[in-house]
Amino acid sequence: MTEGVSDSALRAAREVQVVVSRLRRRLKEVAGKHEMTPSQVSVVTRLDRGGPASASDLAAAERVRPQSMATVLAGLDEQGWIERRPDPADGRKQLVSLSRSGQRWMTENRSLRDEFLGHALQDHFSEKERQTILQACALLDRLTTL
């Protein structure tokens, strides 16, 4: 046992990792037309939800080094999924945003994943179980902010 961590906390930690990994792989099967790294998917999702951002802001939000973010952005740029333009507030910086291709990918990918998950949750889970899943998701989301 890890010092100072309860058995239930360690068990929950392991289960969360396993389930998230399995779900990620399953969703990739459902909607995986394009090969993207988890980091690229995270950045594209962040840009889709939050709009344009500087590379340094993306690095901070993703909790990675600026050099790592530069690599992620280079891969997305190579695939044509992002655009860069000067920051109107600071001409020395560039703002990164989704290109039309990136937006189209997000829309198609989200639709495929939503359809799969929506049908699976409707067909195989009760309303009470779906409410439990929603509560668990809220708790898991807290982990992302620690």
What features would you describe in this structure?
- 69% of the residues lie in helices and 12% in strands.
- With 146 residues, it is mainly alpha-helical.
- Strands 1-3-2 form a three-stranded antiparallel beta sheet.
- A hairpin with a 2-residue loop joins strand 2 (82-87) and strand 3.
- Helix 3 packs across helix 4.
Looking at this protein, list some descriptive labels.
single chain
Low-confidence stretches: none
Number of strands: 3
Q: What's the average pLDDT? A: 91
Q: What value does the Rg take, in angstroms? A: 18 Å
Structural class: mainly alpha
Distance from N terminus to C terminus (CA atoms, Å) equals 22 Å
As a percent range, the share of helical residues equals 55-70%
Summarize the biggest pleated sheet.
3 strands, antiparallel
What portion of the residues fall into strands of 2 or more residues? 5-15%
Q: Using the alpha-carbon principal axes, give the shape.
A: globular
Number of helices: 6
The sequence of SSEs as H and E is: HHEHHEEHH
Strand order across the largest sheet: 1-3-2
Topology:
Elements: H1 7-31, H2 38-50, E1 53-54, H3 55-62, H4 66-78, E2 82-87, E3 90-98, H5 100-124, H6 127-143
Antiparallel strand pairs: 1-3, 2-3
Write a brief structural summary:
With 146 residues, this protein is mostly helical.
